[in-house]
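for the recovery benchmark. tokens below, seq after
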């Protein structure tokens, strides 16, 4: 009797709620894996998540399997909610969280990338002096193949090294031209290691992550790989390096015609909604063709698409003057002035390690200056008033394509060398300039001179 009593005591002192939870989990696994009855399995897993207490491992398993079942059904929002609950309420379940991250990375309905080895998208803003470049290239990082997602603006750039299959970020860097402000981030499955420079001083910090999350800039191109159609929806985790992970619902609102500077397209209007209210909702438009070009972003619209940055002769033209010059390998142009206006372009080396520009000045610029030297002196006087430049060479008279020109070379207080040429052709005034950091001046001056020598004005 004593043995029997002892057994009965053990049986009746086990937590009663733990036995049904384990039994329900086994029934759910049987329904999911043996019978293929996903609705029944989901119902059992939801029952465990809602009612079970104490047996954290069993509840965590049920929530994980609930998310996995929702993925099998194509219900990505419901799966994301389950995995989010798992991460928030069961942070100690490291193995399940790792499995959830792996499932999430594979589960997004990604189609093959609609871009090739290289794609350069020139975007215009409301300000004709401003522009954006979005560049996608195949590359390598730490010996592995990557997709490079490059974003350029007036005096800065960012580069995301991403896994080619999933666009999951591996490394991120953002900097201004002078590198006075710079950020780097190295991504792993549970941690992002961040280094920030301000005025040359680095500061390191770490950001814990509980699931796969995407770079906000890369999200624009991740959406291009979705099977966009009216009614489509998906949830994507986006990582802000300051505030952490935010879930974003991506949904196609409608298909409609859209005219941008690149032309008129059939387009999908896509709404982005931050589920936690981190940002207000906003809309993007993508071409409905196989390219899925981003036609219109907040404050930007597509001007033109290029698929090659090899060394080439480029042509700039307006109603009064045409300029041609040879652009080095990898350099990019931002010729985004509207038709009919004087041509103006920025020229950018990869990762903006050097930059330049070629502009035909408008009728109201340098109107009282008849010679290149007068233009150069006026420019130096203007810069001298701000104490921004220190003269290194010039003004020096030179010839460009048989035309009179004046050359000026200055050091800037930001640590760059500024190389200016002022050219006249009849009544036309042309400014040709380059910037590069001082430590790379000797490397880039021959490149600048070769570009200058190639310039033809007609």
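predicted aa per position
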């Amino acid at each position: 009797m004593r043995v029997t009593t002892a057994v009965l005591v053990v049986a009746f002192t086990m937590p009663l709620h733990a036995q049904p939870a384990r039994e329900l989990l086994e029934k759910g696994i049987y329904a999911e894996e043996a019978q293929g009855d996903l609705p029944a399995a989901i119902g059992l897993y939801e029952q465990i998540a809602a009612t079970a207490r104490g047996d954290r491992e069993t509840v965590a398993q049920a929530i994980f399997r609930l998310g996995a079942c929702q993925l099998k059904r194509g219900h990505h929002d419901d799966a994301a909610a389950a995995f989010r609950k798992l991460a928030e309420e069961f942070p100690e379940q490291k193995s399940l969280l790792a499995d959830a991250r792996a499932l999430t990375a594979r589960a997004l309905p990604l189609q093959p990338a609609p871009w090739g080895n290289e794609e350069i998208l020139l975007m215009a803003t409301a300000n004709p002096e401003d522009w954006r470049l979005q560049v996608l290239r195949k590359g390598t990082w730490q010996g592995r193949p990557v997709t490079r997602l490059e974003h350029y603006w007036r005096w800065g750039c960012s580069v995301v090294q991403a896994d080619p299959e999933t666009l999951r970020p591996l490394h991120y860097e953002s900097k201004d031209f002078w590198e006075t402000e710079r950020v780097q981030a190295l991504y792993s499955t549970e941690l992002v290691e961040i280094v920030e420079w301000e005025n040359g001083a680095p500061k390191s910090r770490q950001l814990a992550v509980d699931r796969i999350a995407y770079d906000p800039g890369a999200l624009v191109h991740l959406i291009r790989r979705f099977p966009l159609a009216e009614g489509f929806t998906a949830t994507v985790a986006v990582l802000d390096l300051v505030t952490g992970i935010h879930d974003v619902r991506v949904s196609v609102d409608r298909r409609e015609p859209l005219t941008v500077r690149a032309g008129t397209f059939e387009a999908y209007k896509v709404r982005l909604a931050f589920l936690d209210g981190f940002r207000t909702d906003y809309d993007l438009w993508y071409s409905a063709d196989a390219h899925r070009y981003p036609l219109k972003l907040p404050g930007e619209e597509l001007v033109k698409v290029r698929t090659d940055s090899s060394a080439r002769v480029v042509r700039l033209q307006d109603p009064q003057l045409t300029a041609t010059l040879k652009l080095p390998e990898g350099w990019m142009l931002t010729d985004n002035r509207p038709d009919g206006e004087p041509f103006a372009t920025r020229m950018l080396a990869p990762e903006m390690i050097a930059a330049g520009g070629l502009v035909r000045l408008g009728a109201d610029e340098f109107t009282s200056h008849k010679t290149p030297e007068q233009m150069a002196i006026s420019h130096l006087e203007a810069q001298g008033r701000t104490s921004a430049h220190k003269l290194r060479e010039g003004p020096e008279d030179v010839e460009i394509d048989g035309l009179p020109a004046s050359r000026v070379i200055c050091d800037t207080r930001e640590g760059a060398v500024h190389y200016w040429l002022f050219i006249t052709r009849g009544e036309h005034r042309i400014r040709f300039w380059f910037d590069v950091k001082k430590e790379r001046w000797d490397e880039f001056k021959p490149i600048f001179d070769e570009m200058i020598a190639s310039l033809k004005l007609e």
